[in-house]
Amino acid sequence: MSDRQSGPPAIELINITRRFVSPTGKSLTAIRDFNMTVERGEFVAVVGPTGCGKSTTLNLVTGLARPSAGEVRLMGAPVNGIDPRVGFAFQKDALFPWKNVIENVMAGPLFRGRSKAEAEKMAKDWLARVGLSKFLYHYPHQLSGGMRKRVSLAQTFINEPEILLMDEPFSALDVQTRTVMHEELLKLWAERQASVVFVTHDLEEAVALADKVYVLTAGPATVKSVYTIDLPRPRVVSEIRYEQGFIDYCKTIWEDLRQEVETSYRRASEAA
Amino acid sequence: MTDTTMESVSTLFRPGTSDKEIEAAALKAITARKRTVLFWQITILVAIVGLWEIGARTGIIDPFFYASPSAIGARLYEWATEGTTEGSLWYNLGVTMEEALIGFFTGSIAGIVVGVGLGQNKLLSDILSVYIKAINSIPRVVLAPIFIMIMGLGLASKVALAFIMVFFVVFANAFQGVREADRDMIANARILGASEWKVTREVIVPSAMSWIFASLHVSFSFAIIGAIVGEFVGARYGIGQLISIAKGTFDAAGMFAAIVLVMMVTLVAEYLMTLVENRLAKWRPQQSLDTH
To answer: What is residue B231's three-state secondary structure?
Structure first.
C-alpha cells in the first residue's frame, strides 16, 4: 500500500447525518455523525447489522441522495450530483433485461457519448476479461446468477471508475460462485487500482477482501470501530480463510460486531 | 407444461434407452397433443354451426330472429359479390377500418405519451388524478351523440370516439408500467451516465412496454367498438350503419353477417399485433415457454 498516489483521499464523509422523512411527516435518522475516509486505491469494507444504514452511506457517495448535515467529498471536491468517476454494483442485478449481454455492457460508454464501434470494442474486451465471450448475444434471463453478476461487473468496470461502490453485490450467489467472484473482483481491482467501498453483512467476505473494515453500530449508524487488515496481497480468497491471521481478525471483529447485531435484534423484537 | 409432458413420457422407458429414442417419443407425444387440441377445436365449431343450422331448418330455432349459418353465409357472399344497399361491402368495411385504425393509433400514441409523462411527474399526477378518475368513470359510448353533434356524421366523430376509448386504457397501463419500473435499474442507468431523456427512452419506456402491449391487445377491439357505436348513432357508411339498416328491415342474417365480418377483422388484427409483440419482446423469459 506504499505506492498509493498522493493527493486528497478518494472519499471523505465528514460528520454526515441523513434523515428520512416519511410522507406522514415522521422523521427517521438512518446515519448520524458518520465519518469515513477512503484513500486512493484502498479497499474498504463496511459491516454492520441488517438495516443499519449501510446502503445509505453508498447512496450519499453516488450523489443519488444528499446528506441532511455534513459533507461528502470525492477526490477533495464536494459531491454535486452524480459523479462520472463513480461506479456502483447493486445487490440484485440491475441489468436491463431487454438488452442482450453486449448491449448491457455497451450501455455505459454509449450513455457517455462514445461511438457505437468504440463501445462495442470496449465491451468485447471487458466481456473477454470476465470470461463471457461466448455469450455476447444472450439475454440476461438465459444466464445463471453468477454469469449475470459478471455482466454487471463488466458493465460497471467498462466506465473505468476511480471509485467503486458495492452494495452486497455477491449476497445472492451460492458459496462456490461467490468465491470465484471474489477472486475476479480482486484481480480487476489490482489491475485498475480503484478505491472501493464494499458493503456486506458477511464478515469473512469483508476480512478476505479489504484493507480496512468499518464496523457500524445498530441504526442510526455511526462508525463503531475501524480495523486495518494486514494480510499480504495478492490474496487467494479460497485459501485465506484457513490462515491463523485471518481467523484472528474474524474473531476480534465479530466480538465487536456481535453486540451491535444483538442490539439490532432486540430492538426489532421489541418493535414487533 | 412442457415439463410435465416430458416427465410422463420418460417414465415409460426402461434404463438404457437412448436420448434420441426418448426425444423421438416426446416429439410424437407433443404432435399427438397438438392434433387432439385442433381436432376438438374444429369439432366444437362444426357442432355449434351444425346444431344452429339444423335447429333453424327444423324450426326449433326461429330463423326470423336468429337467422341460420347458411343464410349468413349467403348474405356475406351476396354483399361481397353484389354489394350492400349502401354500396360496396369493401367500401363500408374500409370506412369502419379507417375510423378504427386512426382512432387506435392516435389514441395509443397519446396514451403512451401522456402515461409516460405523468408517470414520471408525481406532483402533476397527484393534481390531475382526480380529474382522470372522473373522466374515466364516464361510460365512453355516451359521448357518441355529443361527438356526432359537434363533428357531424363523417369520419371525425367516429375517430374521436375510438380515440377516447383507446386513450384511457393505454394511458392507465403506460402510467402503471412507468410506476413499476425498477428503481435500481433506473439508478444503474443514471450512474452509468444516462441523461434524463436516455433514462426515459432506454429504461422507463422499455420496462413499461409489456404493460403497454397488454393494453394494445384490448384497445384494438375498443377502437372497433368506438367506430361501430359511432356509426349506430349516426353515419352514412360503415359496418355499424349496415347493422343499423339490417335492424331496421328485420334482417337477422344481415346483422349476424356484419358481426362475423367484424370478428374476423379483429382476429386478424390481434394476430398481427401478437407477431409484432413477439418480435419486440424477444428478451422476455416466458417467450421460450410459449412456443409450444
So the answer is: helix
* CB of B111 closer than 8 Å to CB of B166: yes
| pLDDT 10s digits, B248-274 | 999 999 999 999 999 999 999 989 988
How high is the pLDDT of residue A271? 75
Same domain, A9 and A134: no
Per DSSP bridges, beta strands A195-200 and A43-47 are parallel
Domain containing A190 equals 1-85+179-272
| Set of chain A residues whose Cβ sits within 8 Å of the Cβ of B206 | 96, 98
Look up the pTM and report it: 0.79
Residue at B199: amino acid letter: V
| A137 and B CB contact within 8 Å | no
Distances (CA, A) of A140 to B208, B212, B285: 18, 22, 9
What's the Cα-to-Cα distance from B218 to each of A17, B104, B196, B214, B259, rounded to whole Å? Answer: 50, 11, 31, 7, 18
Cα end-to-end span (Å), chain A:
46
- The helix (run of H) or strand (run of E) holding residue B196 is helix B196-199
Task: Let me know whether B24 and B76 are in one domain.
Answer: no
Q: Which residues on adjacent β-strands are paired with residue A78? A: A73
> What single-letter DSSP state applies at residue B129?
H
Same domain, residue pair A50 and A73: yes
For A96-121, how does the pLDDT look when each residue is reduced to its tens digit (9 = 90+)? 999 999 999 999 999 999 999 999 99
ipTM reported for the complex, 2 dp: 0.87
- Decide: helix, strand or coil at residue B87: strand
Query: Quick count: other Cβ atoms within 10 Å of Cβ A226?
Result: 13
Residue A114 burial by Cβ neighbours in a 10 Å radius (0-12, 13-18, 19+): middle
Give, for A44, the enclosing helix (H) or strand (E). strand A43-47
Amino acid (one-letter) located at A253: I
Closest chain A C-alpha to B177 CA, distance in angstroms:
15
Bridge partners (DSSP) listed for residue A72: A13
What is the residue-wise DSSP string for B16-70? Answer: T--HHHHHHHHHHHHHHHHHHHHHHHHHHHHHHHHHHHHHHHHTSS-HHHH--HH
To the nearest whole angstrom, how far is the Cα of A99 from the nearest Cα of chain B? 7
Q: Give me the residue from B187, B202, B207 closest to A64, CB to CB.
A: B187
Q: Can you list the alpha helix ranges (DSSP code H) found in chain B?
A: 2-10, 19-58, 63-66, 69-82, 89-120, 122-136, 143-151, 155-179, 183-192, 196-199, 205-233, 239-248, 252-280, 286-289
What is the domain count for chain A? 2
Residue B90: CATH number of its domain: 1.10.3720.10
Pairing type for strands A212-216 and A43-47 reads: parallel
Test the A interface: residue of B182, B183, B185, B188 with most A CBs within 10 Å: B188
**Rounded-to-integer distance, Cα B103 and Cα B125, Å:** 25
User: A81 with A105, same domain?
Assistant: no
